[in-house]
Please model this.
Amino acid sequence: MIHFFPRLDCRIRVKKCSQDICSILESVTDPRGEWFNTDSAAVFVGKVNSSGFKIVPKPRNGYRNSFSPVIEGRITGGKNVAIVDVKMRLHLFARIFLVVWFGGVGYALLAGILGIMAGKLSEGISFTIVPILLIVFGQGLIRIGFYPPAKQALRRLEEMLT
Model:
C-alpha cells in the first residue's frame, strides 16, 4: 500500500536482553540534541530509555535533511531474546507543512478541473498540468529525502543490535 507520507515499519529480533540493547543505543545516541556537533561519535540524536527510544539520524557535515526519519522503537522481550519494533515517520512539522503545501496545490488542481468543466479549456489545462507536476515533484522529493536515510539508519540499527 502506498501512503501519502512515507513510512517504514519493521521488527528486529535480537539475541540480547533489553538492558544490553538500551546500553548499545545510549552509547551511540547524543541526548543533548547537538545537531551540528561533528566532534561527537554519536550516530543518532534523541532519547533512549528502558522501554524504547525516539531518535533521529545525526546529520553529517552540518547538513540537516528535513525529510529524514524520526525513528521510534519499542523494546520487548526476556533475558536472552528481545524484539525491537521500529517505526520511521516524517517529523511532525514536516508533515504539517506538507499538508498545507499539498492542500494549496490540490486547491489549484480543483480550480483547473472546474475551469475545464466551465468551458475555459486553455486556462483549465494550465491550472491542472502545473499542480499535477507539483504533486509528482513533491512526492518524489519527499521520498528521495526519506527512504535512503531511513534504510541506512535501519541497516545501522540492525548492525549494532545483532
DSSP finds three helices and six strands in the chain. The mean pLDDT is 89.
